[in-house]
Amino acid sequence: MLTYLPIQLVFVTALMVCGAVLAQPVLPTVGDISADPVEPRALDEVRKLIASGRSKQALVRADLHLQKNPRDAQMRFVRGVILADMNDSEAARSVFQQLTEDFPELPEPYNNLAVLHAADGQLDRARAALESALVARPGYATAHENLGDVYMQMAADAYQRASTLQPTNRALSGKLALAREMAAKARAR
Predict the structure, then answer these.
(1) Does residue 102 register a pLDDT over 70?
(2) pTM of the predicted structure, to 2 decimals
(3) Average pLDDT for 58-83
(4) How crowded is the C-beta side of 164, counted as CA atoms within 13 Å?
(5) Are residues 126 and 164 in the same domain?
(6) Which of 131, 91, 97 has its CA nearest to residue 112?
(7) Whether residue 89 is found in the same domain as residue 129
(8) Does 145 share its domain with 114?
C-alpha cells in the first residue's frame, strides 16, 4: 500500500508490488504542498466529494479549479490521487511526473510516482523515485518505508533468480524463504 500524506481523509489503495506492498496512500496536508490562496474552498470541496465516493465529480471540480489555477501544486497532487484511485495509472503517473518536474522540492509526488512504478513491477524506477523523494526531504518516513518495501521485493526477486540457477543451495533457499515471509508480512499490514 502507498502513502500520500494525511489530511483528514486517507485513501488506502492496495497496490501490490509483485508480492510486496508499499505504505498506504494519503493526501497531502496544506503544510506539505502549498494550496492556492485564491480559492482555498475548492480543495475542501474536492476532498468532500472524494470522501463521499464521488471521484468523478471530484475530478471535474479539480479540473475546473486547475483551469484557473494551473500552478496549484496541492490540487494537481490531489488530482493525481483521484486518478490513481480511479485506476487510471497512466494519467496519474503523468500528473505526478509533471509535479516532480515543476516542483522538484516536493517529495510526495516522487513517492506516489514510485508506488505506480512498483505496482507495474518497475522496481528500479520506483527505487529511483523514492531516492529522489529522500533527496527532497531526508526525513520523509513514508519514502523510507516504501524504499524498504521495494528493496525487500528486489531481494526476493534476486534470491528467486539465484535459486533457479542453484536449486540445491540450502543457504540460498533459506534466504528466499525469509524474503518471501517478510513480503507476506508486509502485505498483511
Answers:
(1) yes
(2) 0.80
(3) 97
(4) 5
(5) yes
(6) 97
(7) no
(8) yes
Q: Of how many residues is the chain composed?
A: 189
76 and 111 within one domain: no
Q: Is the dihedral angle over the CA atoms 45, 51, 53, 58 positive or is it negative?
A: positive
Q: Does the pLDDT value for residue 143 go beyond 70?
A: yes
Q: What gap in Å lies between CA 105 and CA 107, rounded to an integer?
A: 6
Same domain, 78 and 109: no
Domain boundary among 53, 87, 103: 103
Please report, for residues 34, 44, 58, 69, the alpha-carbon distance to residue 29 in angstroms, rounded to integers and kept in the order given.
8, 11, 17, 18
Shared domain check, 172 and 124: yes
Q: Would you state the cell numbers that stand for residue 98, as one nine-digit string?
A: 509533471
Q: How many domains, the chain?
A: 2
**Pair (158, 93) in one structural domain:** no
Average pLDDT of span 45-70: 96
Three-class SS of the chain: CCCCCCCCCECCCCCEECCEECCCCECCCCCCCCCCCCCHHHHHHHHHHHHCCCHHHHHHHHHHHHHHCCCCHHHHHHHHHHHHHCCCHHHHHHHHHHHHHHCCCCHHHHHHHHHHHHHCCCHHHHHHHHHHHHHHCCCCHHHHHHHHHHHHHHHHHHHHHHHHHCCCCHHHHHHHHHHHHHHHHHHHC
